[in-house]
């Protein structure tokens, strides 16, 4: 699978900005940012991402809910997903995997390392 | 490419820092309202802001701020989960202090929150250490400059205190040497000079007074100006340089290590953050059974112990620590809300050194811990340091190398053991005398001290032999570092009477990753072998043990 287009769902503007630098400039990916689950539902299909990166805790629709809703769209049913969250106990990682995610990236992330972490999770999942 | 990334990240961080005060102000207000009159809608608004801060501070490298916010977020989440009747107690002292801590971290973000300071920086190459001099007597200034340069101190001269003050806007020196006699007419310091001196000292510039006068009044004057040294003319250079080296040591001192034992995880986490914000390394003990291995691995300089814990009490754990000879002098401080006098006295009887009463303010906690550790370090240094160089003595450096090598193997990080020896030192002693020989030894010590990182350790291993351990340092880095030190040393000019001479050093290195089963003592032997290879190959060389 070619990993080029990443849809990032994250409500925090500050984190969005840093993640964009980390994924676009450091990682060389093409990134579309959505500030809420709702927005992701509206824009995801048109963007046709290779990967979904979702913040777990967001007001309104949280990350897991957003993923579930995105999965119901046939074009997005198979797109791999990664969660980002502050709390990463092993049990939680298992829980997020059970929701169909490849894995979890811990927040705060290191901007210089984020793209590598993403690639690694995708490679391991492939 | 990566420069571009760094510039972009820096720009984002700048934007973030600009709006941070307003964010914190909001959190502060909501947080205080919560403490006074908790309400669910307030909690929801605050929770969202804390969550955002916890996530965003970290990505901008403000790790401590992020952790404090996370801690408050968790505390608040717990409050939200609990029924309202029992809830108020959750937002007590530690909640209010956490809020204070946020503000205090923000105001210190430039100095404390940069990742570097908290994560112990790997200093690349150190700049020359600068010493400032306010002196009108050119002859004294020339002579001083000549002496200081040999010990890698760079001297910057000023004609007046005012000029020094202006320069202090840009940077601060290791020390400010002021000749009191040149401040103003008649050898007295006038009002304006006082004012400038006070401001410079307040900025964190250590003052060393040079004077012709040995009388009580002059010394009192220096003391009032909070001088850290008072030197009479003609200057005793070795003494002055030793004093400067001590100042440098203090700047280079590794962060204080504190172990906290408290069953209340939230409170322990709070203490940890407070001490971390003050620049210390802090670990929490998770299970009492792991106490001794935690001491072994982390090697705390002070242990904070809660008096009452469910399974094992503070004094019981103190007793276990004291059963081990090597921890006999480790400062143990109890923390507890215990107000019963008898109980407190009996706790001190059982191996504790001091007693802090909860609730304790952040400032008091930091001051109490820091003072104890400073004292312990002073004592330790008298016992373990070589009097000429101020470096660790043979036994001490050997012990530290043992610990650091074990740590390197455990963490699977490379560490390098280095042996260093002055070439043909006996000839120097024979030709120029022991006093000059001592100057050569002292200058190796000073050079090493300046070039090595905060986390490195160095010791005087024998007469003219030095041992160094470089944790988290691979073969290439070690070679580069030591080769620069070697080159630099060979350019130093030593003088004896009217002749001048140069000296060289030979260096041997052994790396943990090349010898996965070697202990500290083994690596010392290997480094020594490499050192002898360097000697055999003609000296003034760095060799790595193959």
UniProtKB/TrEMBL annotation, chain A:
Transmembrane segments: none annotated. GO terms for biological process: phosphorelay signal transduction system. The modification 4-aspartylphosphate is found at residue 55. Residues 5-122 form the Response regulatory domain. This is Response regulator receiver domain-containing protein. InterPro entries: Bact_response_regulator (IPR050595), CheY-like_superfamily (IPR011006), Sig_transdc_resp-reg_receiver (IPR001789). It comes from Marinospirillum celere. Keywords: Phosphoprotein.
UniProtKB/TrEMBL annotation, chain B:
Keywords: Phosphoprotein, Two-component regulatory system. Residues 413-546 form the GGDEF domain. It catalyses: 2 GTP = 3',3'-c-di-GMP + 2 diphosphate. InterPro entries: CheY-like_superfamily, Diguanylate_Cyclase, GGDEF_dom, HPT_dom_sf, Nucleotide_cyclase, Rev_trsase/Diguanyl_cyclase, Sig_transdc_His_kin_Hpt_dom, Sig_transdc_resp-reg_receiver. The modification Phosphohistidine is found at residue 51. Its EC number is 2.7.7.65. Residues 5-116 form the HPt domain. One of its GO terms (biological process) is cell adhesion involved in single-species biofilm formation. GO terms for cellular component: plasma membrane. Its cofactor is Mg(2+). This is diguanylate cyclase. It comes from Marinospirillum celere.
């Amino acid at each position: 699978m070619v990993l080029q287009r990443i849809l990032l769902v994250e409500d925090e503007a500050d984190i969005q900005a840093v993640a964009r630098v980390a994924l676009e400039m450091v990682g060389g990916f093409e990134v579309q940012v959505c500030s809420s689950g709702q927005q992701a539902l509206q824009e995801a299909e048109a963007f046709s991402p290779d990967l979904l990166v979702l913040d777990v805790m967001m007001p309104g629709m949280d990350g897991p809910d957003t993923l579930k809703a995105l999965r119901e769209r046939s074009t997005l049913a198979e797109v791999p997903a990664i969660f980002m969250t502050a709390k990463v106990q092993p049990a939680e990682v298992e829980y997020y995997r059970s929701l169909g995610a490849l894995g979890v990236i811990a927040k705060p992330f290191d901007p210089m390392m984020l793209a590598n972490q993403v690639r690694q999770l995708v490679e391991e999942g492939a | 490419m990566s420069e571009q990334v760094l510039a972009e990240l820096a720009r984002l961080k700048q934007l973030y820092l600009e709006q941070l005060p307003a964010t914190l102000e909001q959190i502060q207000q909501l947080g205080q309202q919560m403490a006074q009159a908790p309400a669910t809608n307030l909690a929801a608004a605050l929770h969202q802001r804390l969550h955002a801060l916890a996530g965003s501070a970290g990505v901008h490298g403000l790790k401590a701020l992020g952790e404090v916010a996370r801690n408050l977020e968790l505390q608040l989440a717990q409050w939200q989960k609990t029924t309202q009747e029992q809830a108020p107690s959750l937002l007590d002292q530690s909640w209010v202090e956490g809020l204070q801590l946020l503000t205090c971290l923000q105001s210190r973000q430039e100095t404390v929150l940069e990742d570097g300071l908290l994560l112990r920086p790997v200093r690349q190459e150190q700049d020359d250490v600068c010493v400032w001099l306010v002196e009108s007597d050119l002859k004294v200034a020339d002579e001083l400059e000549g002496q200081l340069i040999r010990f890698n101190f760079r001297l910057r001269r000023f004609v007046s205190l005012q000029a020094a003050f202006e320069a202090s806007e840009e940077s601060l020196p290791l020390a400010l040497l002021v000749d009191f006699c040149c401040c103003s007419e008649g050898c007295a310091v006038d009002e304006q000079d006082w004012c400038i001196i006070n401001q410079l000292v307040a900025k964190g510039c250590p003052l060393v007074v040079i004077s012709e006068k040995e009388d009580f009044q002059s010394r009192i004057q220096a003391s009032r100006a909070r001088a850290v040294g008072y030197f009479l003319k003609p200057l005793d250079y070795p003494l002055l340089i030793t004093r400067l080296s001590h100042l440098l040591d203090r700047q280079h001192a590794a962060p204080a290590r504190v172990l906290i034992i408290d069953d209340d995880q939230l409170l322990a986490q709070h203490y940890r953050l407070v001490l971390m914000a003050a620049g210390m390394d802090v670990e929490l003990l998770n299970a009492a059974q792991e106490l001794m291995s935690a001491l072994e691995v982390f090697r705390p300089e002070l242990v904070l112990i809660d008096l009452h814990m469910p399974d094992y009490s503070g004094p019981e754990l103190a007793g276990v620590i004291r059963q081990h000879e090597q921890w006999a002098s480790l400062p143990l401080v109890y923390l507890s809300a215990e107000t019963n006098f008898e109980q407190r006295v009996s706790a001190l009887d059982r191996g504790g050194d001091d007693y802090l009463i909860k609730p304790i303010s952040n400032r008091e906690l930091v001051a109490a811990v820091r003072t104890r550790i400073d004292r312990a370090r002073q004592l330790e240094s008298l016992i373990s340091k070589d009097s000429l160089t101020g470096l660790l003595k043979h036994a001490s450096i050997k012990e530290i190398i043992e610990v650091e090598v074990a740590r390197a193997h455990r963490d699977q990080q490379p560490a390098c053991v280095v042996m260093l020896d002055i070439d043909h030192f006996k000839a120097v002693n024979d030709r120029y005398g022991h006093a000059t020989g001592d100057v050569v030894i002292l200058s190796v010590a000073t050079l090493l001290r300046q070039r090595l990182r905060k986390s490195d350790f160095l010791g005087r291993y024998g007469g003219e032999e030095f041992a160094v351990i470089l944790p988290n340092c691979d073969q290439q880095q070690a070679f580069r570092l030591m080769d620069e030190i070697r080159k630099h040393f060979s350019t130093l000019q030593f003088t004896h009477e009217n002749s001048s001479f140069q000296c060289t050093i030979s260096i041997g290195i052994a790396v943990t990753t090349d010898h996965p089963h070697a202990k500290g003592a083994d690596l010392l032997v290997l480094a020594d072998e490499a050192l002898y290879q360097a000697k055999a190959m003609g000296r003034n060389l760095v060799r790595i043990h193959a």
